[in-house]
Design goal:
With 668 residues, the protein is an all-alpha fold. The chain has helices spanning 10-14, 26-49, 55-60, 67-78, 81-94, 99-103, 105-123, 128-136, 140-173, 177-226, 229-237, 276-293, 295-302, 307-320, 324-338, 340-343, 348-355, 365-373, 378-413, 419-447, 452-463, 465-476, 482-506, 519-522, 526-546, 578-582, 587-592, 605-614, 626-636, 643-666, and strands spanning 245-246, 249-250. Strands 1-2 form a two-stranded antiparallel ribbon.
């Protein structure tokens, strides 16, 4: 019996979206307007109820956050619109294996909360490059990592989120692409620039709730439409487009037929699109970089009021990361079932007709289902979900990027910068980042080769492993020194960059038109490449470190795992450097204990309004004494926990790891 493609109506699968199907009715528009009003209200509340007038307040939310906003913000920062578009698109194309990327995080949020964050807190740092400077000394690693992190934000996170958000908005609203992007970035930038990390975390919490509610509703509609889970598995394997040839063009069957291993996470190590060794080991390296060393993620944990809240927030994020498989990957697969000819198009001419690109239309799987399947009102809710994911991810990146720039780059340019100058520099940099982001959109559009999520992960595989290697050895191997770390980063970066440039130059190709990139360069799967690059970086770091002078323990107290509980006074390597000696106050004092005794000056109405809006009028109160500063510093670097809550979070951490193992085994 010949396989058939199931779809609710012929018109849905073959006709392009009609204007009346777009979100232009009172119910949908009302929901979207209400969403924006509520988000701005929460942002304004956070702005005026938290301390944004200091670097510690703006960048670390005053280190006063409790566990549930941290967990929600970790999740929202990670789940951008790129996930809705990318995970659903890759799911539509290749099945559930891409969900393994999400479940791997269950393990590494535990590693983050239990191993890395305690070290960062004891070190008393605000940024990850700052930790490396304390650990190794010197400026070059700190500046290099800051610049590389900012580039990675633009190449992967910002560009991918904007691109995927633009796909959805263009499909649903028919708005001009750049107008929609400009409006979104403007709103996003306003409450990031004015509100600081507290506003970002509180709005992230709201966005997470909106994302989950909307995604659950859409998933329910999708499974109901397809006839339940059993029917979903059967119909996906038969979701084959009707047009597979055109004149002299006949598409290879492998290019449009669902994979035999579509419902397995672990796939063939040689022929699989996501080979299981790469998924276990290669992905773990990328997860180590992202979850344990990335500024966006770690900054949320550093804002917690104590270690128990850090761990609880990480556990909450871990449980939330179970959901994308069911709320994004599987709905993307259902979209292929419902709209087979559009989502699974094989002929370049057909794909171009449906989505404007010849290499495939899986990226529109999720947006198409929202526009086609959801009723009025709920369609507006789902657009709000996409806006929520886009804006929450971007606000997190903007705040963290401004932290990196201000604390690691600007302070090197302006060594005597005042507290207010640092605050303004961070906010201006967000505006610069927004401009660069808009300029990058056409580059992402042209570089996109059909599956957005693969683009994100491959770029990460080429640039992330050396950073992961340096942080891992910095924490666990005290013999590693600055020379080893620096050359490991540089050589690893050059190797990864050569692969990335070659792939961009030759193109990643597609099933119909394979890339001409030499096999020796591009023939290795990007997850395998990550393993190789990580191993090379580790070897270089260790060899160079062993051939050069070690760092004395007096400089490493509470900076690496073996010395984490040391009570002895640490002499920071960066404390002896010239720029610190020239500074008017200690770095730590500038960051967390600004001199708040400022002479009152007469200000005009406009100046007072500006200061209030940006939180620069909040620096009031007496200057701390040396004893008070020491006590506050001790409190902020304290990682002790109450025994009861330590036991509770530890048990939950173990349960989360068990859940991770079960999920991988069940869908193996």
């Amino acid at each position: 019996m010949a396989s058939t493609t199931w779809s609710p109506t012929t018109a849905v699968t073959e006709a392009p979206l009609a204007p009346h199907e777009r979100i232009r009715n009172a119910a949908d528009i009302s929901v979207i307007v209400i969403y924006f009003v509520v988000v701005m209200a929460v942002g304004l509340w956070a702005m005026f109820s938290t301390n944004r007038g200091t670097v510690g307040g703006f960048f670390l939310a005053g280190r006063s956050m409790v566990w549930w906003p941290i967990g929600a913000s970790l999740f929202a920062s990670n789940i951008g619109s790129g996930h809705f578009v990318g995970l659903a698109g890759t799911g539509a194309a290749a099945g559930i294996a891409t969900g393994g990327f999400e479940w791997n995080a269950l393990i590494f949020v535990v590693v983050l909360g239990w191993i890395f964050v305690p070290i960062y807190i004891k070190a008393g740092v605000v940024t990850m490059p700052e930790y490396l400077r304390k650990r190794f000394g010197g400026k070059r690693i700190q500046i290099y990592l800051s610049v590389l992190s900012l580039l990675l934000y633009i190449f992967t996170k910002i560009s991918a989120d904007i691109f995927s958000g633009a796909i959805f908005i263009n499909l649903a609203l028919g708005l001009d692409l750049y107008l929609a992007i400009f409006l979104l970035l403007a709103i996003t930038g306003i409450y990031t620039i004015t509100g600081g990390l507290a506003a970002v975390i509180y709005t992230d919490t709201l966005q997470t709730a909106i994302m989950l509610v909307g995604s659950f509703i859409l998933t329910g509609f999708a499974f109901n439409e397809v006839g339940g889970y059993g029917a979903f598995m059967e119909k996906y394997m038969n979701a084959i487009p009707t047009k597979v040839s055109d004149g002299n063009i006949t598409i290879n069957k492998e290019c449009y037929t669902p994979r035999n291993d579509s419902f397995h996470i672990f796939r063939d190590p040689l022929k699989g699109d996501l080979p299981w060794p790469g998924l276990i080991f290669g992905l773990s390296i990328l997860a180590l970089w992202y979850w344990c060393t990335d500024q966006v993620i770690v900054q949320r944990c550093l804002s917690a009021k104590n270690m128990s809240h850090v761990k609880a927030g990480c556990v909450m994020c871990g449980y939330l990361k179970l959901l994308p498989m069911f709320l994004m990957v599987m709905p993307g697969m259902i979209s292929r079932i419902l709209y087979t000819d559009k989502i699974a198009c094989a002929l370049p001419s057909e794909c171009e007709k449906y989505c404007g690109t010849k290499v495939g239309c899986t990226n529109i799987a999720y947006p198409t289902m929202v526009v086609e399947l959801m009723p009025n009102g709920l369609r507006g809710l789902m657009l709000s979900v996409m806006l929520a994911s886009l804006m929450s991810s971007l606000t997190s990146i903007f705040n963290s990027a401004s932290t990196l720039f201000t604390m690691d780059i600007y302070t090197k340019i302006r060594k005597t910068a005042t507290e207010k100058e640092l605050m303004l520099a961070g906010r201006v940099f967000i505006l610069v980042l927004i401009g660069i982001s808009i300029a990058w959109v056409p580059i992402v559009q042209s570089a996109q080769s059909g599956q957005l999520f693969d683009y994100i992960q491959s770029i990460t595989s080429y640039l992330g492993p050396p950073i992961a290697a340096v942080f891992l050895l910095a924490v666990f191997c005290k013999r590693v020194n600055e020379h080893g770390a620096f050359w490991g980063l540089i050589i690893g970066f050059l190797i990864g960059l050569s692969r990335m440039i070659a792939e961009f130059a030759y193109g990643t190709g597609s099933c119909m038109e394979p890339s001409n990139c030499p096999t020796i360069i591009c023939g290795v799967h990007y997850l395998y490449f990550a393993i190789i690059l990580f191993a090379i970086s580790i070897i270089i770091i260790l060899v160079v470190s062993l051939c050069t002078k070690p760092i004395p323990d007096v400089h490493l107290y509470r900076l690496c795992w073996s010395l984490r509980n040391s009570k002895e006074e640490r002499i920071d390597l960066d404390a002896t450097e010239e720029d610190v000696n020239e500074a008017p106050e200690e770095t730590f004092e500038i960051v967390l204990f600004p001199n708040t005794e400022v002479a009152e000056e007469k200000k005009g109405c406009c100046r007072r309004a500006y200061d209030m809006f940006c939180g620069l009028d909040q620096q009031k109160g007496p200057k701390m004494t040396k004893e008070e500063e020491a006590a506050m510093k001790l409190k902020l670097t304290d990682t002790s926990e109450k025994p009861l809550w330590r036991t509770v979070v530890n048990i939950n951490g173990i349960i989360l790891l068990a859940v991770a193992v079960f999920c991988h085994a069940f869908f193996a």
